Amino acid sequence: MIFTLTMNPCLDRYIYIDKLILDDTIRAKKVKDYPAGKGIDVSRVIKELDGISIAIAILGGETGDRIERMLDKEGVIYSSIRVENETRMNIILESDKGQYRISMPGARIRKKKLNVVFEMLDALVRVGDIVVISGSLPKGIKPETYFEIIKLLNNKKSFVYFDSDGEKLKSGIKAGPDVIKPNKYEFSRLIEKEVDESNLKTLVKDGREIIKRYGLKEILLTLGSKGSLLITNEEAFFSSPLNVPVNSAVGAGDSFLAAYVLKRSENKSVLEAFKWANAAGNAAVMTPGTELCRKNDVLDLLGKINVKRIS
Ligand SMILES: Nc1ncnc2c1ncn2[C@@H]1O[C@H](COP(=O)(O)OP(=O)(O)OP(=O)(O)O)[C@@H](O)[C@H]1O
Ligand SMILES: [Mg+2]
After folding, report:
1. Are strands 98-103 and 130-134 parallel, antiparallel or unpaired?
2. What's the CATH fold of domain 181-311?
3. pLDDT of residue 108
4. 223: CA distance to ligand 1 center in Å?
5. Atom 20 of ligand 1, nearest CA residue
6. What is the location of CATH 3.40.1190.20 in the chain?
């Protein structure tokens, strides 16, 4: 089974208006909500691509209820750790001038609830299962938490994908996940130097040092509109993006990771899974807002993806 873990989910509320005017009533033309949070995104894309996963998420209050209902509607299986505090919401005002993003403060999580996360993972995950750990941590939870979670999962002999940033990534990687999926900025903070995306050889060299140091199997390094790299100890591939209409790049990395995880779980080679990942990442930018990739777009793009071996 594939599990995803979202410790800090949120609801993205897009409010479409003409103009933001001070001291006047602004009538919204349309309001659209999307369940968000990186692990939840991964589970939704796996479902879109006809796979099955279980999304483990910390959810609270009415926003938590709404996310559950949205997942129910999409047929995404989930197991929530319910907390009293409301799950956070992002308000995105889409106006004639562009986007205003307002991020609400997230709720603090108690230590007792954090223990439930460990208990749930311990109860559900079996040898050989796949766990995708994505995103940030709620207030009150220390960055070393991912280190402890990955240690637990390694003891259970599951296969761990890890997609996080900053101190959380630096700490969690020490527990030895199997695969990481940093973007350019996350990778740069991890290796503590500037990343030059045109110098693929150096990126592969830096990636292999990280692989060796932490005992990883693969690194999926996404470079936004510049493409992506798959780095293993023995092989490295690069893919440049297709010329697709760009609508919104939000969630491209999650779509990319989801397709890769799903195809690897179906025993496809790293190269084949990498092609799917790029098709899903490219397809995700074609959709508006926080919408993820659509299956038909992924299938359309799949045959057109070009991959170059670099070593
Ligand atoms: N402008 C773009 N045009 C075409 N493809 C893109 C573009 N931006 C992203 N992609 C595709 O999506 C992949 C992932 O993008 P990116 O590196 O931005 O991920 P990310 O920063 O982790 O995204 P997020 O965390 O918001 O989901 C890229 O490797 C590429 O395949
Ligand atoms: Mg990302």
Report:
1. unpaired
2. UDP-N-acetylmuramoyl-L-alanine:D-glutamate ligase (3.40.1190)
3. 87
4. 7
5. 253
6. 1-16+34-177, 181-311
Instruction: For residue 120, give every residue at least 6 positions away whose Cβ sits within 8 Å of its Cβ, in sequence order, or none.
Output: 56, 79, 81
Which residues line the pocket of ligand 1, CB cutoff 6 A? 183, 222-225, 227-228, 241, 244, 246, 249-254, 256, 278, 281-282, 285
Q: Of the bound ligands, which one is closest to the alpha carbon of residue 291?
A: 1
Supply the DSSP symbol for 52.
-
Distance from residue 50's CA to the centre of ligand 2 (Å): 22
Instruction: Give the integer Cα–Cα distance in Å for 22 and 151.
Output: 52
Q: How would residue 99 be classed by pLDDT, with cut points 50, 70 and 90?
A: confident
Mean of the pLDDT values across residues 255-270? 98
Q: Residue 183 has what DSSP assignment?
A: B
Ligand 1, atom 17, residue with closest C-alpha = 224
Q: What is the pLDDT of residues 203-252, one digit of tens each?
A: 999 999 999 999 999 999 999 999 999 999 999 999 999 999 998 888 99
* CATH top class, domain 1-16+34-177: alpha beta
Please compute Rg for the chain using Cα positions: 19
Q: pLDDT (tens digit, 9 = 90+) per residue, 157-193?
A: 999 999 999 999 999 999 999 999 999 999 999 999 9
Question: In whole angstroms, what is the distance from residue 223 CA to residue 239 CA?
Answer: 10
Neighbours of ion ligand 2 (CB under 5 A): 253
Residue whose structure tokens are 């996360």: 117
Could you say which ligand is closest to the alpha carbon of residue 242?
Answer: 1
